């Protein structure tokens, strides 16, 4: 089943001399995994933003879009005045027990009532990852989303993502500059530029 299809799309930011990318066609199918790689500034995040619907391509068409996309970026962007748990229940009010179980799996249970703006970057990244998983995405986008984690915690996060992927069958699109830190090292690669 195709979840996302882009047909010869291009993206040209106003005031920039040329497009970030052009004539790019891409399909993402259920259960598939993709890794976007390439030097800094070549358009990986821009493509993710297009997939997420946060950016509209300036040429081409997107005939197919998923209903639910989960996203986690390097910058966790939690609601700062809410606690870790409230950030989750705000998104998924009926899934508090599930959220709590995932916080426990990522060693965040003791901090569930801490306000988001008191969390370290790696702690906030874990909450942002759980938030993205809780919406039961059809596509999960991870843009350097786990860069603040030590190796053991990163492995717990990877195990959680893979377990949820086995259960829910979402497609995964990830950007990671560190080849040792790819959730799916065997993912289909898209190289930029
Ligand atoms: N909102 C924007 N307005 C104008 N230019 C932008 C905007 N967002 C990104 N760009 C430009 O588009 C190009 C691609 O940026 P993008 O963030 O997609 O690259 P990237 O490959 O993800 O980089 P990195 O690996 O450093 O995160 C860069 O030259 C950047 O300056």
TrEMBL record:
UniProt keyword terms in alphabetical order: ATP-binding, Nucleotide-binding, Transport
A Pfam family annotated for this UniProt entry: ABC_tran
Domain ABC transporter: 6-193
Recorded GO MF terms: ATP binding
Tree of life domain: Bacteria
SUPFAM superfamilies, per database record: P-loop containing nucleoside triphosphate hydrolases (SSF52540)
Record-linked InterPro entries: AAA+_ATPase, ABC_transporter-like_ATP-bd, ABC_transporter-like_CS, ABC_transporter_ATP-bind, P-loop_NTPase
Homology family: Belongs to the ABC transporter superfamily.
Protein name listed in UniProt: ATP-binding cassette domain-containing protein
Species name: Rhodovulum sulfidophilum (Rhodobacter sulfidophilus)
């Amino acid at each position: 089943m195709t979840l996302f299809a882009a047909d010869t799309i291009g993206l040209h930011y106003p005031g920039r001399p040329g497009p970030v990318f052009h004539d790019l066609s891409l399909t993402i199918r259920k259960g598939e995994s993709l890794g976007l790689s390439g030097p800094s500034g070549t358009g990986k995040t821009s493509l993710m933003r297009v997939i997420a619907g946060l950016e509209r391509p300036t040429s081409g068409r997107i005939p197919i879009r998923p209903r639910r996309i989960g996203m986690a970026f390097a910058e966790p962007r939690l609601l700062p005045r809410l606690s870790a748990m409230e950030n989750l229940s705000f998104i998924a009010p009926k899934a508090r027990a599930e959220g709590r179980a995932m916080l426990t799996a990522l060693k965040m249970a003791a901090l569930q009532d801490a306000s988001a703006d008191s969390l370290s970057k790696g702690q906030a990244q874990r909450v942002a990852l759980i938030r993205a998983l809780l919406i039961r995405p059809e596509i999960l986008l991870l843009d350097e989303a786990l860069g603040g984690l030590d190796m053991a915690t990163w492995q717990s996060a990877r195990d959680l993502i893979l377990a949820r992927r086995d259960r829910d069958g979402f497609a995964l699109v990830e950007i990671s500059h560190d080849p040792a830190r790819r959730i799916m090292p065997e993912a289909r690669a898209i190289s930029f530029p």
